[in-house]
Structure formats: structure tokens, C-alpha cells
Design a protein that fits this description.
elongated, FolB_dom, Dihydroneopterin aldolase/epimerase domain-containing protein, alpha+beta, GTP-CH-I_C/QueF
Length: 110
């Protein structure tokens, strides 16, 4: 199996449940792994298309990390139909909550 990955795609977007998040915005990171079957010649997944897909989804309005993970995953599965699995992890860096938390993360792989 061949895996094409992009890690720590950095985004700033006004997404979140709280009103101040829509004003101040949040920093996000996204990791993507696209697993492809072994074949000759090997199929490939264009890194640029992966990054463009993630950015396109984040440019749409939304609140929940789960929605972004699902929408990115669905778009990538459609873009790379030969993929065996696609894994998407979305992290909100420094989420607005009491205490010190590095990030909140939601992952989906199928």
C-alpha cells in the first residue's frame, strides 16, 4: 500500500461554537493520509489537490470540527476514488477553555 500524506496544513479561520471565535478566529492544523493500492504504475494523489481541498472546505462556514473532518474526508474520497482509506485529523490549536490545552482534535479514517 502507498500512503500519500500532508501534515500540519495550517489555517486561520473564524470557526467555533462561541461568538468570540467568529470574531477573533482560531488556528487550525489538518493532517491527511491517503492510502492507495499497490499497482504498476502506482497511482498517486497530488499533494496540491489535497491542500486545495482542505482550504476549500475551511473557507466554508462551519462550527464543529466533526463537520470539517467529515466534509474533507468525503471530498478526498470523491477526488481519489481508488483510495483504500483516507484519514483526516483536524486540530483546533489553543481552544478557548479554562486551563492550558495544546489542541482539540477530531480524526476520521475510513
Amino acid at each position: 500500500m502507498l500512503t500519500v500524506s500532508l501534515d500540519s496544513i495550517k489555517l486561520l479561520a473564524p470557526h467555533g461554537l462561541y461568538p468570540q471565535e467568529h470574531i477573533l478566529g482560531n488556528s487550525f492544523e489538518v493532517d491527511v493520509d491517503v492510502n492507495l493500492p499497490d499497482a504498476q504504475p502506482w497511482p498517486f494523489a497530488d499533494y496540491t489537490l489535497i491542500q486545495q481541498t482542505v482550504t476549500k472546505i475551511f473557507n466554508k462556514e462551519g462550527q464543529l470540527l466533526e463537520s470539517f473532518v467529515y466534509n474533507i474526508h468525503s471530498a478526498l474520497k470523491e477526488l481519489f476514488p481508488v483510495s483504500i482509506t483516507v484519514r483526516v485529523a483536524v486540530r483546533k490549536l489553543n481552544p478557548p477553555m479554562p486551563g492550558v490545552v495544546g489542541y482539540a482534535q477530531v480524526c476520521y479514517e475510513k
